[in-house]
Amino acid sequence: MIRSVLKKCNLFERIKNITCANRPKQIMEGVPLDSRKRLAEFYQSPSPKKTHFVGLTPLKELTNISSPSNRPFRVSIEGNIGAGKSTLIKYFEGFEGIETNAEPIDWWRNLDGYNLLDLLYKDINEWCRVFQSYVFLTRLKLQSAKPKNSSTTVQMFERSVQNNRFCFLEQARQSGYLKGADYAVLDQWYRWARSNVDINLDLIVYLRSTPDVVYERVKSRARPEENTISLEYLTQLHDSHEKWLMTEDERFNTVPVLVLDADKTRDEVLEQYRLNEGKILGHDKKGTKHITKEDKSKVKKTLDLD
């Protein structure tokens, strides 16, 4: 309904990237009041409700996965702090032909003697811009690098350049940690990289968790830099992941997403890895069940996306 109204008014291109709260009144002329309210809700909507959904997100079907011929299959492991990304990376380390890339935390802990990770958590308002700039650079280096061995068939990354842009940058902007100019510069860096460097992903594995669960895990593992992480911060990151990966808005993501329940026990999570090895490594693409409109409708209803 909203799109049809906008199309008639020839306004869609003018407003699709602008929030209603900041839009001049004249831009909305000709749009019925009811549609204005619904449009505002569309741009300011919260993340989808928590569910126990596990599988491939709608419109990002397994049949959409393709293996490029000029490089290895690329898969990114995404999720909140404490969701179990490192565990999944370690699970696949011994597989033949698989190149795993853990988060370059050591680089962040020692940049010419500066521990940027520690500085960030101690004063996020002061150090967010610097930290995100360096994180972008390090992720870009890893994600655009050629495989270490000619026999590599899969490159696996713990988080991605896309995560940095559509999750952490968005969360930082909404929380006020990044000001307008800082955000604009980092966004332009991403746009340049996307247009000039092959940072494409073929699959995203989303270790979906709840903030309360990962908060307890973070406290239990007691990493020095993480002792100031709050439940509120983890909740914000959770919401950013949900908005990025659990909707059908292709402005944010067009990559197929495999969703796994990361709230389970370690053994249960490892069993999910075992059962989904073929999907995660890009093997299970042919002969898969086609997702019907009815299937998509059920998933959308489950995720409260209507």
From TrEMBL:
<feature type="domain" description="Deoxynucleoside kinase">
    <location>
        <begin position="75"/>
        <end position="264"/>
    </location>
</feature>
<dbReference type="InterPro" id="IPR027417">
    <property type="entry name" value="P-loop_NTPase"/>
</dbReference>
<dbReference type="Pfam" id="PF01712">
    <property type="entry name" value="dNK"/>
</dbReference>
<protein>
    <recommendedName>
        <fullName>Deoxynucleoside kinase domain-containing protein</fullName>
    </recommendedName>
</protein>
<dbReference type="InterPro" id="IPR050566">
    <property type="entry name" value="Deoxyribonucleoside_kinase"/>
</dbReference>
<dbReference type="GO" id="GO:0019136">
    <property type="term" value="F:deoxynucleoside kinase activity"/>
</dbReference>
<dbReference type="GO" id="GO:0005739">
    <property type="term" value="C:mitochondrion"/>
</dbReference>
<dbReference type="InterPro" id="IPR031314">
    <property type="entry name" value="DNK_dom"/>
</dbReference>
